[in-house]
Amino acid sequence: MSRALIWLRRDLRLHDLPALQLALRRGEAPIFVYVHAPEEEAPWSPGASSLAWLDRSLRALQADLRERGSDLLIAHGATLPTLLQLAQHAEVDSVYWQRRYEPVVIGRDAEVKHTLRAAGLQAESVKGAVLFEPWEVQTGQGGPYKVFTPFWRNAQARLHDVVATTAPDRLPAPPANLSANSLTVDDLGLIPVPRWDCGFWERFEPGEQGALRALDAFIDGAVNGYRSQRDLPDRAGTSRLSAHLHFGEISPSQIVARLRSAGWSAAAQADVDGFVRELGWREFSQHLLYHFPRTTDENLNPQFAAFPWQENSQALAAWQQGRTGVPIVDAGMRELWHTGWMHNRVRMLVASFLTKHLRQHWLHGARWFWDTLVDADLANNTQGWQWTAGTGADAAPYFRIFNPATQAERFDPKGSYVRQWLPELARLPDKALYAPWEHGDLLRRLAVDYPQRPIVDLREGREAALAAYQSLPKTR
């Protein structure tokens, strides 16, 4: 039997793994390999929280492979020479991998494919990270979309074509000489020192089995009522599948196929459709990143090249540390630090506060999220920050500025979320919890160790942001 290398990156699963299915269809024995080369993804190499998740995800995948009689080969170093060496030692005919859409990775993968083919190997990349390739959904003029609604209308009509495959129960073992020379996950040094990640694992279980259990929990619980619960940060009203999707522990096709297989009432089907629409936003982010690769570091809207952003390291540090004096913002930043994750509604609020009230460049926030989020995905991170900052495609206009106090009162009406992450404010009455500075010296009288006032007056910050926006040169 001929052999094929299955080069794994952000597809750390066995079910619905197109590269594996391609090898099996061609009668090739799959050999699974992970090559750790984060430096090749600079300037957006994986952040510290992503690496902590990766450690556990690799261990889970290796255990799943061993249960099936196979194993995961691990290497550390430059990708291309490593793959060439492995291909030679394993005497393989083919190398298969799942496509990625980050600008630097696209260039690297093109070189890998060209060189492997020049060496006489069959080298192919396949779709697996998205429902639709970024070039499959086009406008009537054959170009990319910049607005989500028409993009999703086009893509949604194709959902009936989505299918998912299952993993074989048994897989062949890799050649003994390769297993003997493989690194261990420990050799990659991904575990943080000191162990600041312990809170992550109270909430998440990395790996394919963890992803499938998270999907089960969502279907059994939160999906029915999703539209009414998804914006409430004090409860598990969302799927929390984002990190599993980022690392490819589950595919979007698996999620859609699983949701489609259940019999839903009309009301529940509307909730399911609302959730699948959120997967559509993920697809749209990949679409934008592929067609507008410069947006990882530049505004898609060129008008904002002249925007008068502020540089204030003290304000940025206060935001990062959850010490702004605005409870909902600080609660979100502390949730992020403890769990490696933040509720999506709160992500919008903290991003709006940074880019509007503090007028800090969205890249400051994008970089902080990149290092601290376990689900840090370049496409989602870029699109999310530019959407909130008003500088990207299909963006909320810059003059749409969230008031964090009124948003907190609306979406955390009992203060449960704020009290969970800011226990020092637990004794405050509900009416004072969202804007405590409006209640005299209450914090001082209760001897609360919390900023007495926000680092920026919300009204003044909003007015300054609007004035800055009005100063931009108007485009025709």
Summarize this structure as a short list of keywords or feature phrases.
476 residues; alpha/beta; Rossmann fold; Serine Threonine Protein Phosphatase 5, Tetratricopeptide repeat; DNA Cyclobutane Dipyrimidine Photolyase, subunit A, domain 3; 3 domains; five-stranded parallel beta sheet; 21 helices; 5 strands; 6% strand
Q: Tell me roughly what share of residues is in helical segments.
A: 40-55%
Report, as a whole number of angstroms, the end-to-end distance.
64 Å
The CATH architecture classification of the largest domain is Orthogonal Bundle
Low-confidence stretches: none
| Total number of strands | 5
Biggest sheet, open or closed, and with what strands and sense? 5 strands, parallel
Q: Which band does the percent of strand residues land in?
A: 5-15%
Radius of gyration: 24 Å
The assembly state of the depicted protein chains is single chain
Order of neighbouring strands in the sheet with most strands: 3-2-1-4-5
CATH class of the largest domain: Mainly Alpha
Give me the CATH superfamily of the largest domain.
Answer: DNA Cyclobutane Dipyrimidine Photolyase, subunit A, domain 3
CATH topological fold name of the largest domain: DNA Cyclobutane Dipyrimidine Photolyase, subunit A, domain 3
